[in-house]
Amino acid sequence: VSVDLLSRRAAPDGVPGLVAGQVIRGLRRHGKHILFELGRGLLDVHLRMTGKLLLNGNGTHPRARIMLDEGFIVFDDIRQFGYLRWLESAEKIENLGPDALNLSSNEFAARMRSRKGRIKPALLDQSMVSGLGNIYVDEALFRARIHPCATLRRISVRRLHALHGSIAELLAEAIASGGSTISNYVDSTGARGTFQSRHKVYGREGEPCASCGGPVKRIVVAQRGTHYCPRCQRA
Length: 235
Ligand SMILES: [Zn+2]
Description:
The protein is an alpha+beta fold. The chain has five helices and ten strands. The strands form three sheets. A four-stranded antiparallel sheet has the order 1-6-7-5. Strands 2-3-4-8 form a four-stranded antiparallel sheet. A hairpin with a 2-residue loop joins strand 9 and strand 10 (224-228). The longest helix is centred in the C-terminal third of the chain and has 20 residues, at 157-176. The protein is globular. It binds zinc ion (ZN).
């Protein structure tokens, strides 16, 4: 494998030289990161808001090309928040925070109980739990009927276990649906995600709640647009 950089911002730390000539041994996901396991380390790809990996595709805003023995993968990113990065060992994955789907219910509850403040910022903090972005935090809190501004210390352990169950269920469904395409996300074959049609609160301000029929409300929490049902998710 080798990497051709088409934009300097796509990879800040000399990635092409570190990756050159290595063999891809595996591919996995951790949190929001896509990891190519190479002989001497890992190539970490973070798509952020508008990044995509396209197999043998052109893309509209190509930033880097990962050359394979046969064919290539284009890293395309309109807004340029995504990146390619080198991780020298698997231990560095620990710094990315524990993956939401690998964390046990007890570990999740203990992590949440160890922190002060409100629930939503804690769920967005990738060092607390890795893998949830703005959309999935709102959807998970709706499923668990927890208000996004609820104070962590006042949420019972039982409800944290229920929230952990909601997160696992939600992420499994979202992955199976190819994710959520809000503006332009596509997978490596160019297919759009379909999970957005199953969002219960995110992006549905003023529409009836799927559970009680009352209007979904939008507020700002942690500087992020936040959607919830005031009737189903009591503060
Ligand atoms: Zn409701």
